[in-house]
Amino acid sequence: MSLRVDAVLIAGPTASGKSRAALDLASKADGAVINADSMQIYREAPILTAQPASADLERAPHLLYGHVSAREPYSVGQYARDAAKALSEVNALGRLPIFVGGTGLYFSALTDGIADIPPIAAEVRERARDRLKRIGVAALHAELAARDPATAGRLRPTDPQRVLRAVEVLDATGRPLSSWQKEASAPVLEGLRLAKFVIDVSREDLRARIERRFRTMIDEGALAEAEALERLDPALPAAKILGLRELQALRRGERSKDEAIESAVIATRQFAKRQATWFRGRMKDWRWISDSNEILRSPDWSSEPG
């Protein structure tokens, strides 16, 4: 098969069918799937984060899925380094790299570059987390506003993960996060020919898919994953795994099964809406499609007819 590109990127909100589209393309084009979703990196929650099933792994190589512990911090900078390594591995196999996911910042690292912030020392992280526990996220956000108003102005005072990250960077480097973000490193995919797709599913269809998938997750064992992550630090990125809090409340007897499902589905819908908003604002030059099968038929990646 004659390829017109060096890599394919497939973005879309949760439950939009992007993973299936990537797998179908990998099967057709002798490709390998590389994860670009910040929740599917965690090894303790393969069901809750809808990671590829064993049958999918048999159809094509999959990289950067379940390779990080949920109890470890993981940054966009780390993802960029891991993605560059994965790209080299796929190229060495002679396969087409297919990046797929729903995390906008990961795609920014691939196509635009990101701030090259030095690794944060463990003792700095620990001090910042201890302060968060003592005074709470609202007070920590207020302190950040006094030290780095530009960054604080972009962050919600109810977002412990991002507020903590900004404080850690400031404490560790002496420079505001907003200053670092003005100095982007080279994109992972710099100089490559890319086919870029965004799957844009109708709101009604997406709602139905989200509820159906979450019910299936429960049947497949998501409750056990939630129980294993019961004592997860709320400041860690993995604490934002969709459905985690609701299933933990169900396990503790604080919610009924129907209540947990309804709450998780609503939260997932809201998250999908935020994803779509981000894509519309940052991915205007990507090809937008409503049917994932359009990727297989697209001339953007292959010189041969579909």
Question: Can you walk me through this structure?
Answer:
By secondary structure, the chain is of the alpha/beta class. 50% of the residues lie in helices and 9% in strands. It has 14 helices and 6 strands. It has helices spanning 18-29, 54-59, 76-93, 104-111, 122-135, 137-147, 149-152, 160-173, 177-180, 203-220, 222-228, 244-251, 257-282, 294-297; strands spanning 7-11, 31-35, 62-63, 96-101, 194-199, 287-289. The chain has a 6-stranded parallel β-sheet, with helices on both faces. Helix 5 (122-135) packs across helix 6 (137-147), helix 5 crosses helix 8 (160-173) and helix 6 crosses helix 8. The protein starts with 6 loop residues before the first strand and ends in a 9-residue tail after the last helix.
Notable traits:
6 strands; six-stranded parallel beta sheet; alpha/beta; 50% helix; 306 residues; 9% strand
